[in-house]
Design brief:
about 200 residues; alpha/beta; seven-stranded mixed β-sheet; two-stranded antiparallel ribbon; 6 helices; 11 strands; about 20% strand; disordered C terminus
Length: about 200
């Protein structure tokens, strides 16, 4: 039986998110599907599954973005296809907060605020804690509650958050979310074979 590809889904695809997720993938020895970037998303779910299958290493990071469109836009349609595909094992989702006028919301298991603290509350676009527990607004999150996903982590705007997540600082908020997913999914414990110097480096931060 073919081994399922281990995937982390990210609900943001702008230029800052793309650079940050590509950086995070390198840090943990995985691969980012750079062609999944876009605001809004342009690749279909079927195209993304083919690209995931061709990636040399797990975990594979895939970005989705509806660019503020209300309801289920192209990013969410592609996300649903990827998340439910039999060849894909979703390790977790990094759900990104948004300030869009027609903001939709999703349940989150935990959030990581702009100071790197894990909280049961949602966060806003700049990474500040909100007032609702386990709930966060975003523009590419409408479909998440309908899917059987193992872990959803809320964070502010990837690569930004008032420079708290700037790539020049090692994108500490995004990296903490990635490491949280890898730890909780058991991915670290199940890793054998290929040595990963990037992973040990990120754990030292």
């Amino acid at each position: 039986m073919t081994t399922k590809r281990k995937v982390i889904l990210v609900t943001d695809g702008d230029v800052y998110a793309a650079k940050t997720i590509e950086y995070a993938a390198r840090r943990v020895g995985g691969r980012c599907i750079s062609q999944s970037k876009g605001n809004p998303s342009t690749r279909s779910g079927a195209e993304l599954v083919r690209l995931i299958a061709s990636a040399p290493y797990d975990p594979v990071f895939v970005m989705f973005d509806d660019s503020g469109l209300q309801g289920e836009g192209p990013g969410e349609t592609a996300l649903t296809y990827v998340a439910t595909h039999p060849a894909i094992e979703v390790l977790g989702v990094i759900a990104v907060a948004s300030k869009t006028h027609q903001a939709e919301w999703t349940r989150v298991d935990v959030s990581i605020d702009r100071n790197g603290e894990i909280t049961e509350y949602g966060v806003d676009k700049i990474g500040e804690r909100e007032f609702d527990e386990h709930r966060m607004n975003g523009d590419t999150v409408y479909c998440l509650d309908k899917l059987d996903l193992p872990l959803i982590i809320g964070i502010g705007d990837i690569g930004k958050m008032g420079r708290k997540d700037d790539i020049s600082k090692g994108s500490p908020i995004t990296m903490k979310a990635v490491e949280f997913i890898l730890e909780r999914s058991g991915y670290h414990a199940g890793q054998t074979g290929r040595e990963n110097p990037g992973l040990s480096e990120s754990r030292q931060k």
